[in-house]
Amino acid sequence: MARKSSSTESNEIDAVDLISLLSMPENGDSYEIELSVPEQDIDLIALGKEELALAKPPVPISASVSKTIPTTLTTQTKTVAKPQQTQTKTVNVLTPIQGFENDSFDQIRKDISVCQQCGLCKTRKNVVPGVGNEHAKLVLIGEAPGADEDIQGIPFVGKAGKHLDKILAAAGFKKEELYICNILKCRPPNNRDPNLAEMKVCTPFLQRQLALIKPKLIGCLGNISAHYVISPSIPGITRIRGQWFDSIFGIPTFAMYHPSYLIRSESREKGSPNWQMWQDIRALKAKYDSL
Ligand code: SF4
């Protein structure tokens, strides 16, 4: 979603800037996909605090795990690898959506274009279903369209989207190989955050898209996307970016910053959000290339 920001030319960077100003990851191990459960979550489980354990702590996973595409929440038990132990944890994923055996992207677009399931249908200029390769191995998911996207009907075409394009290109991604969309297919007025009810009612469209694409990986762009797609109980994006999780779609999911956050920071110094994004996108590319 394109958010309001103090737009200046100096916010714009190109691929050369990314390559020259941001250092390489220090070692290949940073690309390792298996992660430890956050300490607080282990403590909660160890203490047997059922009400807290049910808060669905983030689940680190191996991206090699194959899952079914998920409209209702159900519970699956999976075994996840940890650096020094193996734990069985519960993961809530969506059940596969039924009744769309002969689905198509044209049909999804038609259904979205006439959708009136939430109030955003009254304020949208255009629906913004998604764009990209219908057989993509990687789907990038943001939260909702912004003003430019609402006008054009295409996701990530505003200033933040252009920034994302440069980051993807600098990391070696060909945009035409990817599929890019949002949880919501219509713009919330004044670029407000999507609310949970809107995201829930809109999710079947995303499920249908994922069921057709069958991606191996998902990249969540930003805090809202990550908290919806991965789990509402995960820490903020600044703590979980660059990590892999299971998700409600049953597809290995990587957490990253939203480009609208990145364009508000001019710094490219080590540790800055743009520097962190550079590490993350390269880690994602390495995983992508390993598929
Ligand atoms: S945001 Fe989703 S659920 Fe709401 S009107 Fe648009 S397509 Fe329908």
Structure description:
The protein has 291 residues and is α/β, with parallel strands linked by helices. It has one domain: Uracil-DNA Glycosylase, subunit E (3-Layer(aba) Sandwich), CATH 3.40.470. The protein is 34% helix and 14% strand. The chain has 11 helices and 8 strands. Strands 3-5-4-6-8-7 form a 6-stranded mixed β-sheet, sandwiched between helices. Strand 1 and strand 2 form a beta hairpin. Helix 1 (15-21) crosses helix 6 and helix 4 packs antiparallel against helix 7 (196-213). The longest helix is centred in the C-terminal third of the chain and has 18 residues, at 196-213. Residues 1-16, 19-60 and 62-89 have low confidence and may be disordered. Bound molecules: iron/sulfur cluster. The site of iron/sulfur cluster (SF4) has 14 residues, from helix 7. Iron/sulfur cluster (SF4) is lined by residues 112, 115-118, 120-121, 127, 184-186, 198, 201-202.
